[in-house]
Amino acid sequence: MPHFGQHASVEKCLEGAIKAEAYGFDSVWVRDHLVFKPYDMEGADNTHIEGLLVLSAVAAVTKKLTVGTAMTICHRNPIHLAQCFAALSRIANGRVIMGMGLGGFPTNSPLRGSRLRRRSERTYQESMQTCAAGFGREKEFLTKTIITTSRM
Predict the structure, then answer these.
(1) pLDDT digit string (tens) for 116-149?
(2) What stretch of H or E contains 69?
(3) DSSP string of 111-138?
(4) What is the pLDDT of residue 148?
(5) CATH of the domain at 116
(6) 151 in a domain, yes or no?
(7) Are 13 and 54 in contact (CB under 8 A)?
(8) Could you give the CA distance from residue 14 to residue 136 in angstroms, rounded to a whole number?
(9) Among 17, 38, 62, 145, which one is most buried in terms of CB atoms within 10 A?
(10) At how many degrees (to 10) do helices 109-118 and 120-135 cross?
């Protein structure tokens, strides 16, 4: 989904999602960044439209398409993260896959601070538990959630 870089556009994301659903695709995905710094192959434009907001808009205009995060970085407050995904799940009628990880992009690390870097494993676990509790369906949430980890 073009929610980052020179082609970033909510309209293109919505158009693409509607077409993807019409063509029979199962899902669409977004990336999560604190700061988007493009790879060389992606050009120099660092425009980034918040992925969860894009997925909310996509979920509102589709009926069958699953929306997913190809990895949510657990840098957000765990309660807020749980609320965001619970709301997204309601908007999408449960058509959500939450990929979560620690984040491995060097541009994200300095913004989180060294104290948080040292506690990142614990933060990740707390975020997972809080999100599961926020959904009120711990077992179902944890078995339907794709969990990814990357070391900093």
Answers:
(1) 555 556 666 666 666 666 655 544 544 444 443 3
(2) strand 66-73
(3) HHHHHHHHTHHHHHHHHHHHHHHHHT-H
(4) 39
(5) 3.20.20.30
(6) no
(7) yes
(8) 30
(9) 17
(10) 90
pTM of the model: 0.73
Within-domain flag for 15: yes
Tell me, what's the pLDDT at 67?
A: 96
46, part of any domain: yes
Measured CA to CA in angstroms, residue 6 lies from 3, 70, 100, 116 at distances of 9, 20, 26, 31
Answer yes or no: is 150 within a domain. Answer: no
pLDDT per residue over 89-112, tens digit each? 999 999 999 887 766 555 555 545
- Helix ranges, the chain (H): 10-22, 51-61, 78-91, 109-118, 120-135, 138-144
Give residue 87's domain range: 10-144
* Domains contained in the chain, number: 1
Structure tokens at 138: 């711990």
Closest-CA residue to 95 (of 130, 49, 58, 51): 58
Percent of the chain with pLDDT over 70: 64
Residue 46 has phi, psi (to 5 degrees) of -100, 25
